[in-house]
């Protein structure tokens, strides 16, 4: 049921100086808003002989595509070993360069392979539907380092489901769960040293983005789409976290979303209105 969610586990073994293939653990779902207030929930034990996603999580995803993940070669790096210009404890919520991002292209009716890309710039056609008609959606989730050095991603299945809803609403190809998880795995492993160490109140922010990259002048879906995931080490969005009050502004002259519109999905244009 929806009360169960999954975490990715990337375990670093200091004795072997390597990171085994990421596995999965499970937990009773706890709203993300409480993470900074009550700490992390305890996970059930992982059975290496069982599928990487249990049947109950597969039911949540409603797809057999989310029952396994690709094996990855992993470098000998540890969370928090990157050299930054700011102490881990003082990170804000802002862009910082990392090793790489991942990219997948949808073309000719099918998804390509997950590729690691070092260059933070993209070559985009001037007729791309993302530029002219705002055909783009994104997600935001986080990876945390626990006290034992393991790195967890909080309920990525929920973000995968919401991205599929956004794709359906905006007539973009839906990214399969398995491919979504594989891309997250690959980008975290390649940037593992940018995961803030335990006790610094930081996290690795994961930003999946899908947009129409093919040219269209008429109002119609693109023939090509690009899916990216970039990762950034961050601190709290609001300095001090949720334990301190923040100032808010209420604006009544404009609506961010309209009835029967796209306010229930995470499309880029919603945030332009902010």
Please supply descriptive tags for the structure shown above.
globular; disordered N terminus; ten-stranded antiparallel sheet; 274 residues; 10 strands; 18% helix; alpha+beta
Task: Describe the model.
The protein has helices at 35-38, 55-61, 129-133, 156-169, 177-190, 268-272, and strands at 4-10, 23-28, 101-107, 110-111, 115-117, 136-138, 141-145, 151-153, 203-212, 224-234. By secondary structure, the chain is α+β, with helices and mostly antiparallel strands. Strands 1, 2, 3, 4, 5, 6, 7, 8, 9 and 10 form a ten-stranded antiparallel β-sheet that branches. The longest helix is centred in the middle third of the chain and has 14 residues, at 156-169. It is globular.
